[in-house]
Amino acid sequence: MTAPxxxxxxxxxxxxxxxxxxxxxxxxxxxxxxxxxxxxxDDFEHLGFHISPDLDTVTYTLGGVANSQQGWGLEGETxxxxxxxxxxxxxxxxxxxxxxxxxxxxxxxxxxxxxxLTEVTVELGxxxxxxxxxxxxxxDPVRTVxxxxxxSIAFQEYFVRLACGxxxxxxxxxxxxxxxxNPAIGALPRPAAVIICPSNPYLSIDPILAVPGARSWLKxxxxxxxxxxxIVGGAAIKGPAAKIMQELKAPVSALGVAAHYxxxxxxxxxxxxxxxxxxxxxxxxxxxxxxxxVMRSKADRxxxxxxxxxxxxxxxxxxxxxxxxxxTK
Amino acid sequence: MTAPxxxxxxxxxxxxxxxxxxxxxxxxxxxxxxxxxxxxxDDFEHLGFHISPDLDTVTYTLGGVANSQQGWGLEGETxxxxxxxxxxxxxxxxxxxxxxxxxxxxxxxxxxxxxxLTEVTVELGxxxxxxxxxxxxxxDPVRTVxxxxxxSIAFQEYFVRLACGxxxxxxxxxxxxxxxxNPAIGALPRPAAVIICPSNPYLSIDPILAVPGARSWLKxxxxxxxxxxxIVGGAAIKGPAAKIMQELKAPVSALGVAAHYxxxxxxxxxxxxxxxxxxxxxxxxxxxxxxxxVMRSKADRxxxxxxxxxxxxxxxxxxxxxxxxxxTK
Lengths: 329, 329
Prior knowledge:
The structure is a homodimer.
Chain A: E1 6-14, H1 17-30, E2 34-38, E3 44-46, E4 49-51, H2 53-62, H3 80-87, H4 98-112, H5 117-127, E5 133-136, E6 143-148, E7 151-154, H6 155-161, E8 170-174, H7 183-186, E9 191-196, H8 201-210, H9 214-220, E10 225-228, E11 231-232, E12 235-236, H10 241-247, H11 254-260, E13 267-271, H12 278-282, E14 287-291, H13 298-316
Parallel strand pairs in A: 1-2, 1-9, 2-5, 9-10, 10-13, 13-14
Antiparallel strand pairs in A: 3-4, 6-7, 6-8, 11-12
């Protein structure tokens, strides 16, 4: 370990809504000292647009313009485009708000001009006032594919059109083997910790880890890797995580999440209501911290983010890492 | 002339707003007995969309959903997309309403699926309740290019971004020589007349006539070809027609319009205020009809359309055509 730990830099891994909330709390505390590596396995082409749902959710959330009622898209959204497209008989299954559409048009136009997804992500973040650094996991296409009963289903088909209504036999990250980890990730300063946000482990975090070199880069940082369980009381706060875990025969619990990240995460943050699982998780060799993890308000996000940072600092001073105490600031 | 004249069928040629108004009057009188051949020289690619401004204007106008205040686009339009695109720093010079965008997305998506522009035009017309047949002049790309002071300027750059603010030395219809006249045009029943709507002769009608075979097909129909002058009292009702005529050293008058169509049009409809020019135009060998040609209301459109049909019927019975009187419908 030659590079010094940059005490003031944190790397987070995130997918969609749940992950974006914690990333928002971290961004509030850290600003430009935070880098969020975002899943692009959900990306797809629709009506000629390159749509990056998780990048958009994180960007909108950190930009303070996310639609909090709806759980996705932009606040103050209008729907003239969708209404008219439906009238014309166009494909209306994927809802595109008028303002949201500007993001997709901007991105698609810039990509066509030759910009990388990373460059476009920086531009969109800057335009929406995001001060943290957001990085797609790769500039190359990785596409999550759901295998169900012999069928291969593109992710948004599964997630939106089928509303996750088919059983998952297997999840594939098409293109991952050939994808290059975002070069900007390798160029990041060595952080004080890595925080895996409470995103779907199978659909949001695994695609990031599937990019060749991602896992070894994370482990090679030699800093605490902390995961926040997206499963609380045996259920997912949002989305199909619990359903998928059941279908893949994983225990639907914080214990199942811990087992999923065994060998990668050094510590896990579980919810108060799952405290009874702490001993069993600890037996997997993972440090456990019990917190209130359900984020209903901005204050909740900031509080959980602070708890994650404190947990990371504490782990950094254990013999496994044996770093000196973090300097002031 | 072997094919019988289909008394109940009229073909109109049209470009944008002015032409669309007369086409709307004709459509009111004729319904599915009208075919409108529409200029696609203004078409362009923008933000990945295939945009066909004249097809859209004619479709919206005949569908009764055109924005009458604005003079282009759809009624009840909203602007969330443009506002957000401007916020993101995207190209905002070409205004795209949220609902209008659905037309472009639908068309682009269908073209990408392999549909022809003709097929898409039919689908969009049907969705918006248009009963007349609308046909792009060609399914192949023809692009109007403005030559000004040694520069070549794409049409929408000239028309929208530069607001026609540079002098026109020459107008080119790039791609026209290789374009194939829409095959659906050759398959039309022989009409009772052709009506060239009061669109810009240089920018809206000439591109249609530039498609190989268009002019000879029109003349070969052997039916009256009538043009309605878009120049009234020495000025254009809308758009740069007068300015361009001046720059191209053509007399800015109904006489100039008549001279432009000499050898093609058999008759011209001029406005009451230009009655003094009637004799001079007649001397060009063109029949002249004087009408109120400024269309402020739907009733004006229908009245002018009716006058054009009456003029055509009258010409059809002159020795030049020598057809029997039109049968009762």
